[in-house]
Amino acid sequence: MPRMRVLALAVLATTFLAAAPPAAPAASGATSPQAPAVALPDTGLFAPVARRYRALLGRDQPSAPPYTVLGRVHQLLATGRTDEAVARSASLALDTPGARVARGRALLAQLDFASLAAVEPSLGATEDERALRHAILFSRDDAASVDSLTRAAVAGKDDAGARPELVSAARLAHEQLKYTLADSLWRRVLAVTPADSFAPPWGSDLGSRRAAALTGRALVQQKLRDWDGSLATLREALEADGNSDVLMTLTETLIRLGRTDEAISAAEWAVKLSPYKESAHYLLGNGYARKNYTQLAAAYPAAFADRAGRKALEAADALLGRGDREGARRDYAAVIASHPGWVDARARLASLDFEDGRFAESRDGCFAALRTCPEYGRAHAILAKALEAQRFVVDVHRAAYEARFAAAPVPDVPGIEKFVANWKALSPRHQKRVALSVAPWATYVAPLVAGGASYYIKPMWMLLSDVPHIETLRDTRIDYDSRLWDDVRGCGGFHTVTGIEDVERTIFDRYNTVLHELTHQVHGILPADDMRRIQEHYRQAKERDDATREGYLSRYAGGSVWEYFAEGANALASPMRDAYDPRDVVRERLDRIDPALRALVEGFQMRRDVSGCYPVAYANGGDDLLTQGKVDPAIPLYRKALEIAPANETALLSLGNALLLAGRAAEAESVAARAAAAHPASGAVRVLQADAAWHAGRGLAAVRASLASARALVRESDRYRVDGALGGYALLAGDGTSALAAYDSVLAYQSDSPEGLPGRAAALAQLAADGKGDWNAAFTQYDAAVRMRTGIVSLRASYALDLLRAGRVAEARVQLDAAKLLDERHPDVEALRGWAALAAGDVKAARAHAERALEWGDWSDLARIVHAGALRAAGDARAAAAWEAFDARLAKETRPGYVFRKELSSWQLVHAHGAAEAAVAAALRGR
């Protein structure tokens, strides 16, 4: 989309959003934001949403036909003015079905369960009243009652008269993972709910009912991974009634299609239409953000504490860390009283309110913060959990959850107070819950502590990068889904983090995040052969899933071998609550779908001799230092590991790779030879040998030949690693045929390999560039790769480069825009922007992009190529000198190397001098 069009949309959106009336006095102390200052799109997918919203707002005009009180309540609800709707509905006498429904819907939208209790007994037997009763039961997680109320209708034949029952039965079937049944029920609903051809612009009840049924069908299509089909269904639902339920279902589809920016817009629209929409706030607070926190502070400079304010907040944080909760509360409140616009202060108090069970206060503090800074992820995240906690209060299972938790003995986990870095800051309740989650892996705590690993339970106000040892994640994004690390609930690694909210909700049979992330840590210190066993189980599950679509406990488990193993551990510790338990990661499903994974996890948990984990734990400590760019301090840790186990595969691999990062290729070759002698069948070791030889200047042809020869010596389960490396080297050499064969082998091992998919796309592109293939086939493959991993900058850049080679400038810019969201200052991406400008005839812009790229990273060969090309295109006499300088640099830097990008805590391969880059240089030279 051209930039001027974006600006025009922003102005338009601001105009119609500002037309919303000011917030009415809140009911029950709630203070929801009524006019978020984000510019909401009104074209494309969102055109029907904006059209209906404008039509509803148009009814506010004096010239519009007057509303009845009932109509006014529904209009207020549909336009996101929930608090005003609750206030208006209070005047209704509950003596008609319409009044009872209007009042009940308003209270349910605001999660005012206390007031709702007075309405519920009066609900009668009309269609809308029955639907409302079911919705209230779902909000309490009372699936058994829903089942009893709907079973007869499902078995009956009066679908038109039983529409609410069919809708609720379909929802229940979906929650119980009975997707075929759910789809059949949604089809029955749609058969008696035709499109409303005569609906006014602001919508109709029939349209809303049809939208709900279409959304249900789309949810089933998502579970079947029919993402394009679900998008088509949701487009129809948006036309029928683009409400917040449709929009939040749409977010999942858009994310899976790699359309992250539109997913964020869908969630923002959902918040606009339903300010108390828990799932929308959760998404916007779980990393789906356009701005990182540096950019957010620049965009809202008055919304965050100044230096003195930060010191005051840090002093209060220290009180909380020492267990002085009242002192922290007092000091947070004092800062807010002095500076009510500081959202980071409000988030701290809201987080503490949540921990102390003051959910309404937590909610209202977040609403206040979002009125100041509507893009503040921490406020969205805390608000989502405060709203969820309000539902937990009325959950029909709550008493049983609490009783079971109280009856569970506190496990003895030696060393837990050292392992959990902020153990003393946790309440006794949360200490117990954390210990219960750590207990299954208690044997592994000692090697984790010995290696320097830690676990941190994060208050919700904290950014992930505020946690000790995680500072390097500041402003960075997750590669597989583009989320902002700072806003995600936690992370698993050498230093693992879980949010306090997840500790609390585990008591209520929600996902055991502490156990999940700890399992990643344990996985990370297992010896190499144990890791191979897990990898092989994962490969077999992938194979089953390709055939049956049910090889995993969850979609998340299929994302990587790490998630597969962690989901298995979670399922083992999570027996079903009852027949209506909606969780997919439970022990019973593990036994049915993947009993071998259960046996694998149990075997590791029962292991008592974990001596083999210590060398790996020390090596992991070195790897952690590498993420900070500290190669020299890391090497002694690898040496320490090798003193304990001189042939340890993991330690040798880590040492060899560290030496390559440090530019010590000859030493790396020596370590690789030592590793190959000890582990000749290891694919990772053979790849290290090849990399060391390449960096040592042995020549690409010799490296490829040697690695291809070694492939036969590698165990079959490890050959995919060798094939991936062979594919990469073939691409560097411009050998598309060999690259395609190598990546096809990778994909034969794992059909959705995150390395194989983009590698195959690049191979197809190389063949197309050589006149031996089809560009469209390459770009179809690239699209599949991007859908799998939306947040990988190098993938977006590779895609853009090949689009530019094919002359598709506009499409290349789409990928470059996506890459910019992930890494704002990537020199190669900026250089490609320069090439795109040059291809469009804008020589001045091309030169500016190239110069900016060189300013950000003078190591970028691509930036030098584009800069010289721009000078040539401009007829600048300095072009010849620029090309001569580039050629001299090329002759001097015959070996690849690495640079550390501190701002992203990542290592960048440089001076690889691949064929694609050479082709760009040739094209821009005019050869």
From TrEMBL:
Residues 1-26 form the signal peptide. Gene3D superfamilies: Tetratricopeptide repeat domain. It comes from the Bacteria. Transmembrane segments: none annotated. Keywords: Repeat, Signal, TPR repeat. TPR repeats lie at residues 615-648. This is Tetratricopeptide repeat protein. It comes from Eiseniibacteriota bacterium.
